[in-house]
Amino acid sequence: MRRTLPIAVVAGVGLFMLVQYFIPLEEFETLYEWALDWTMVIGCFAMLLGLYSLTTMMVTKVKRKAPGWGYSLVALAGLFFMVFVGVVPHYQDSLKYGTLFMDIFEYIYIPIQAAMFSLLAFYIASAAYRAFRARTVLATILLVSAIIIMLRLVPLGPLSGINQWLVNFILTVPNMAAKRAFWLGVGLGATATALKIMLGIERGYMGRD
Fold first, then answer.
1. Does the pTM exceed 0.85?
2. How many distinct structural domains can be found in the chain?
3. What domain of life does the UniProt record list for this protein's source (predicted)?
């Protein structure tokens, strides 16, 4: 029963979602809205469960003094402090500008996020440098195409029209073909995974047996 009931629920909901997409009935639309409401409710409980799991993991790491436990301690302090300043003092006005909650979000969280993305940009630049080395024919084609795309916004005088034509050609012909092939593969993979879950072949969402 522990295995059969979850598989039956998943298969039934998945089959209903598939049928209601192709058969536009008013009853199906009502059930679809009801299912969306339940999805939001389940998502809230899943977020609480994830928060509990993350907190437990960080507390365990701090207790055992595992490598990097100081970062876990800082994360726990930030988590509980933000919950306190956002809920306890003035939970109704915590999202207004000028409150401590929004000041921390705007002047600490957003700059840290910008710094993280800046570091990511350096990693991307390093990866692009390694990928654009013209060692093979395909790498040379990639390098030339990237240079043409990057020069799209650079004023080249009489060559601007030619460059714009090349950019449009690259974006609408080879790039679009590659994107369509990529998304087709993603769609087929998602369809195969959904069928495996509905048929009970893939049971990773049920956890350990």
1. no
2. 2
3. Bacteria
